[in-house]
Fold each of these.
Amino acid sequence: FHLEVSLDTWTQGNAIKTYKYNVLTFLPLNLYEQFKRAANLYFLALLILQIIPDISTLPWYTTLIPLVVVLGVTAIKDLVDDLARHRMDKEINNRKCEVLLEGRFQESKWRNIEVGDVVRLKKNDFIPADILLLSSSNPNSLCYVETAELDGETNLKFKLGLRVTDERLQREQQLAAFDGECEPNNRLDKFTGTMRWQDERYPLDLDNMLLRGCKIRNTEECHGLVIFAGADTKIMRNGGKTRFKRTKIDELMNYTVYTIFALLILVAAGLAIGHSFWYEETGSKAWYLYDGSNQSASYRGFLSFWGYIIVLNTMVPISLYVSVEVIRLGQSKFINWDLQMYFADKDTPAKARTTTLNEQLGQIEYIFSDKTGTLTQNIMQFKKCTIGGRTYAVDMGCFRNHPLYPT
């Protein structure tokens, strides 16, 4: 048995990863993401200021404790969401599939499938990777697939194997002796390729491919060659890297915090300037206010500016983020408990897979549709007909005198 697939780059194995964090990256990545929020960054800077003795007007732990609570609550929520992604990835990667190993088909997990493996799929099986259809139990290696998992379309689409593979690769022994070499392109928007086998070259196109995420329908059995696996499959490349998403509420809160922070700077600057004038006119001349340091009025005003920033830190609502996170968590629970979104026929309730984007639901700005018949008025106008071999039309007088014409 020998089989080779030539690719510029390809990933070993068929395991997929949709989660954001692992044990090592959770803390740094989550903190980095949280400090993109203006309030968290502000309180971190405030904590650094409170460590400086000449500036601090409040103990440093008065800022540290609320900041740790806010970061901890958000981190726990993000961890719960990511653990759900881990479980989903594990479930998918551990699905079973029949792979040709040592001359016979053996059950193997999806994550162990590699480029170049020959797999056998049966009716209602999900396709584990991007596969070149070799043969099927239907005539001419016809295979029907359902793409509902990809685009929601329940109408079946048909795929065809090459005629040469349909004729010569039906039995297990023939598949084990297959020594072809495939050269597919690695473009996302289309698929073309070439298969070299027994000194002949055969063109390949998308009609010969079974894409990951589709489901086998109306086909008892089919065989295919794994062309792309894991992160190289069309569905995974189209999804791209998992991104941290921000909602309109997050953007609005950041804008609000920036505005409050600008107001805070103006108030602190006004108080610091007033303190400088007061010390120049009164404080420096009062012997009972002498603190033993010979600092100028402007320098004292500079230090008092940062002191006022610390004292007035309650103007920036750090609890706002905690409140929003709690609201999102409650909304996700209500979505899961909503009886009107429960599908009794299949015992399937609604499931909020993340608590980050709840407030985006229902905020529809644009509607795009390719079903033009649903958005336009279909009008049928009579032109002509044939009755008894004779043609009649509205603009023909003989039609109006015909006994079948409705009066």
Amino acid sequence: MAAVAPVVSDLVDFLNASPTAFHAVDEAKRRLKAAGFAQLSEREEWAGLEPGRKYFFTRNHSTIVAFAIGAKYVAGNGFHIIGAHTDSPCLKLKPVSKVTKGGYLEVGVQTYGGGLWYTWFDRDLTVAGRVIIREKRDGGVSYTHKLVRVQEPILRIPTLAIHLDRTISSEGLKVNNQNHLVPVLATSIKKIVGENGPKESSENKNMKHHPLLLQLIAKEANCEPDEICDFELQLCDTQPSAVAGAMKEFIFSGRLDNLCMSFSSLKALIDSTSAEHSLDNESGVRMVALFDHEEVGSDSAQGAGSPAMLDALSRITGSFNSSNSKLLEKAIQRSFLVSADMAHALHPNYMDKHEENHQPKLHGGLVIKHNANQRYATNAVTAFIFREIAERHQLPIQDFVVRNDMACGSTIGPILASGVGIRTVDIGAPQLSMHSIREMCAVDDISHSYEHFKAYFEEFTELDSKVKVDY
């Protein structure tokens, strides 16, 4: 068996550090800072941007945009972007999560995105996310955002025994998302944990959640339960991501859709700009934009449907020349977006779900996604540019079209192509079990993705100068 490539091990580390979109952004921040990227604030002016320098900013701490400005950049030049998303389908805690039934303490959750919810049953679950904490400082009060993650399994959604549901073998599992997707936290019998433990009384000001749960969260946040003002938490599988399979050729993990593309694009940007002279001949801006809320339509202040990307392009352009308002339009027409979101690999047990001539394989390289009805934003020009980069580096490339008798999903590609007016190609690494709590992809495709993205950043300026369309 071949040794695991460093990029694959790095991805596994990234996945294990990123149980939520907030954690994924935090891990991305750590990596960017270590690579010399300076953090910007959208609340401040960006007047001091310089050619040859690298920057990033976050929005809501669940979306992150990083960019490296070429040493030969001038206002009006193009942006070479890879866009992906940080969120994945999951179960999020309700604003009032306290549920008590039949002697059990349960936690109320709501479904986020189009998950395969039956895969969440009988898993060792925990919670992670962010909390807003009240802190007393210098005689005053401030409010701090902190990330939390309870490491040990504290929750489980148990299935019903087959003896109590004899029709499951003939009719299949039928899940009512309201009634059946309620994880068990504890039993009422064991809820008393001592005099210093959580109390079900007026002493605890927050009665919307089980005091036991609040105590666990407060321990992770290093605060008292009554200092928790609010939180955004979700359920997570405690089983770590791993390189697996008899030939160690797969990655088994949650959230491959779409942390796999987020990681590959981020690493490609960092590595393509890490050498001392890597930006000397670059006249454009290399950018990675990782958005939240793709799984629910991108319509939020930090989703791809927001002005976040357009704001970034405008502010970067304006920081180099604020007197010419038409330079942004010029820059957009010189720009290019790779919309990177995982693709559907051919499933050996469901061969009929793929169109005969479009069957992406694991280990087969990135997949260019096409759809005549614009569910994907790829066209002949953008597909050619992306494919040409693959051919220059002998990288495998595949094509995907959904069957005419099946509905087609979509990505941030059409949203940004129509909202910003930027040329776009939709692509993704092939995977199986998409939207399951536990997905799988191939290790070779991680290497292919990273190498393809890195080559795109390094060579797009030169390649695009040879492509003639609107002239």
